[in-house]
Specification:
The chain is mainly α. It has five helices and no strands.
C-alpha cells in the first residue's frame, strides 16, 4: 500500500491500513520512542509508547492534513509528543518516590550519615 491508500484505509477504519502503517513506520517510531524515553523508562515503556503512537494515529487520523506534511512526518511528530508525555510521566513518578531504607541502599545511608556527622564535629 502506498501512503494515499493507507490514509484512505485509515479514514475508513480499515484494520489492514493500520497494519500497513505500522509495517511501514514501526522501526522509526520505536527508535524515536527509545531515543526520547531513553534511560528514563524500561523496554516495556518504550513498547507501550510505540503502541500508543499507532493507537493515537488510528483515533485522530481525521486531524491529519496531507497539505502540511507526509503521513510519515505526521506519525513521527505524533510520536514525539506521545514519547515526551511518557517521559514526563515517568520522571514525575521517579521524583515522587518516597525516600526510605527500601528505596535507598543501607550503604548509601551509612555514607551520608557519616558525612553529616563529620561536618557537625
Amino acid at each position: 500500500m502506498d501512503e494515499d491508500e493507507i490514509l484512505a484505509g485509515l479514514l475508513r477504519h480499515d484494520q489492514s491500513a493500520l497494519k500497513a502503517l505500522m509495517n511501514a513506520h514501526i522501526n522509526s517510531v520505536y527508535s524515536l520512542c527509545s531515543a526520547i524515553i531513553g534511560g528514563t523508562g524500561s523496554l516495556e515503556d518504550i513498547e507501550e509508547c510505540t503502541s500508543d503512537v499507532f493507537y493515537y494515529a488510528w483515533k485522530s487520523v481525521q486531524k491529519y492534513d496531507p497539505k502540511r506534511a507526509s503521513l510519515r512526518t505526521w506519525v513521527l511528530m505524533l510520536c514525539k509528543y506521545v514519547a515526551l508525555d511518557r517521559r514526563r510521566s515517568l520522571t514525575t513518578k521517579i521524583n515522587q518516590l518516597p525516600l526510605n531504607e527500601d528505596t535507598i541502599s543501607s550503604k548509601i545511608l551509612e555514607t551520608t550519615f557519616a558525612t553529616i556527622e563529620e561536618r557537625q564535629e
